[in-house]
Amino acid sequence: MKLYTELAEYYFTIEEAGRKFPEEVEFLRETFKRHKIQTIVDIGCGTGEHVKEIQAMGFKIHGVDGSNRMLEIAKMRYPHCTFEYGRLEDYFAKQPVDAITCLFGTFNYLLDDNAVITFLRNTHRNLKQAGLAIFEIWNADPIYRIKRKPLTTVSNVRQGNVSIRRNRGFRMTRADDVAIVEVNYVYNLNHKDLKDRHTMRVFNFPQIQNFLEDSKFEVLNVYGSYAGDKYLKTGARILVVAKKRS
């Protein structure tokens, strides 16, 4: 996936255009403070922006990603932070932590039930007793209704001397109890096109709740946004805060 390799140096600029980054960081800070969290692993940390901000707030956080290029940039930009290579399905922390985050749809790259179960069991193992898991997951319900969307421009951003236009479209390729979506992008960098394709699985909340309960987690809260909005079936996002059960 070129967003995480060839385009990695522009990744945060591209993604930030569609996000409310300060709101995300504040949500995490408040959640960590409320649950007396001190140690955190961010799985799918990308180029490290969440890690940098959370560490600056006084928490001990460690970033993990499955893209060597993303990690290279994270280490270069934030040498005072710690990062390491690790894949979703088989990451094992050196020692248990208070909280694990997996944000911005990274969870949606778990394409089958076995991958989801393995990831959640490893997350359970990597957490201390009563530790927190915070997952941001793309919601299947709106996708079932729409089925497909043609390529349209979703953002225009600039980083240094490079202007970047992002076009995105998608189509559902499987629509039973496992919903698979092919997401197509065309990035225009200074008038040169670069095509990219991501295959992702989208979930509805009952599916996520069942996976979590089967993996010995208790769902504490589910939101529709980092502002704390109520989760709605029609919303794009499922933001789950869950606690490890013994």
From TrEMBL:
What InterPro entries does the record point to? Methyltransf_25, SAM-dependent_MTases_sf
Q: Which GO terms describe its biological process?
A: methylation
The keyword Methyltransferase is annotated on this UniProt entry:
yes
Q: Does the keyword Methyltransferase apply?
A: yes
Gene Ontology terms, MF aspect: methyltransferase activity
Going by the UniProt record, its keywords in alphabetical order are: Methyltransferase, Transferase
One Pfam family name is Methyltransf_25
Q: Which positions fall inside the Methyltransferase domain?
A: 40-131
- Name of this protein: Class I SAM-dependent methyltransferase
Q: Which organism is it from?
A: Leptospira ognonensis
